[in-house]
Amino acid sequence: MERSVQRLFKQNLLNLFASWKNVAKEWKDKRLKYLECSDNIGYYNKRLAVELWLKRTRATKQARLNCKRMKAKYILMRQRLIFEAWKRRNSEVRFFYARLFNFGNINDHQAARVGFSAIASFAKSKEFVMAKRKEHSSKDSYDILQSLYKKKLLCYMKDLQSRTRKRYDIERSRS
């Protein structure tokens, strides 16, 4: 009787260990699945953020394009209105042609002025950029020279320290 009880106890104990081993394995699998799922969610969130950024970029570009188109339409409409007003005002042909010629000259001068101002602003910005580059490069070269100087100074200090220590050891050994 005792032997059968021991055998049953041993068998139940083995079953308990096997069950616990299976539970631990399940927990490990669940944890790995959770980690994989969280990685996938992180990747998906990054992808969504990039897509949202791209949509915003496209919308900004489209808004700029629409703004340029509207400016061009407004300028064209304004020129037409001016032209029609001048045409109505100047019914006589020779005055009309003279004023039309002057209007063309004014527009040409304005376009040239805008072009030259754009070139001037570009030159100023280029000068600023070059000055900044020069400043950064001189700062970088100063930092490099400063580090070389510090290394050399440290080397001299170590050399001086070792020489002093040697002299001290020699004097100590003599006395």
Features:
175 residues; 2 helices
Please give the count of helices: 2
Instruction: Report the average pLDDT across residues.
Output: 80
| SSE run | HH
Question: What is the distance, rounded to the nearest whole angstrom, between the alpha carbons of the first and last residues?
Answer: 94 Å
Major beta sheet, specifics? none
Round the Cα radius of gyration to an integer and report it: 43 Å
The global form is flat
The amount of beta strand, in percent, is under 5%
List the topology elements.
Elements: H1 2-89, H2 93-174
Task: Explain this structure.
It is a single chain. The protein has 175 residues and is an all-alpha fold. The protein has 2 domains: 1-88; 90-175. Helix content is 97%, strand content 0%. It contains 2 helices and no strands.
